[in-house]
Amino acid sequence: MDGKTVVCGLIGDPVEHTLSPVIHNTLAQETGRNLVYVPFSVKAEQVEDAVRGARALSIRGLNVTVPHKSAVIPYLSSVEREAALIGAVNTLVPEEGGYRGYNTDLTGLG
């Protein structure tokens, strides 16, 4: 890890059980990517601060898990059409002015 390491992560509550860091960090290591994936435990009252903080720290992307998939939407700069229809996002991608929210759950089921 160094000053060029790409930081991605997961926000939710709880996150202690998730295997996502093992999966993403192993994949990054095996493919030679300078990337780290970090789980962040975020309480309901901290969602706005978490999104703003992630943006301020240039976190490259975030996954969102329960219970924040709907609660995070007001703090995003935009939301992809299908995610807006569902009313939930699970992926945040940086864009000018904030994060854009996507829902990849349906794609995974298709």
TrEMBL record:
Coiled coil: none
Single GO MF descriptor: shikimate 3-dehydrogenase (NADP+) activity
Keyword Protease (UniProt): no
InterPro entries associated with the record: Aminoacid_DH-like_N_sf (IPR046346), Shikimate_DH-bd_N (IPR013708), Shikimate_DH_fam (IPR022893)
Transmembrane annotation, as ranges: none
A biological-process GO annotation: chorismate biosynthetic process
SUPFAM superfamilies: Aminoacid dehydrogenase-like, N-terminal domain
Keyword flag Transmembrane helix: no
Keywords: Amino-acid biosynthesis, Aromatic amino acid biosynthesis
Residue ranges annotated for the Shikimate dehydrogenase substrate binding N-terminal domain, each copy included: 10-92
Pathway: Metabolic intermediate biosynthesis; chorismate biosynthesis; chorismate from D-erythrose 4-phosphate and phosphoenolpyruvate: step 4/7
Record-linked Pfam families: Shikimate_dh_N (PF08501)
Origin: domain of life: Bacteria
Protein name in the entry: Shikimate dehydrogenase
Taxonomic source organism: Candidatus Eisenbergiella intestinigallinarum
Upper lineage: Bacteria, Bacillati, Bacillota, Clostridia, Lachnospirales
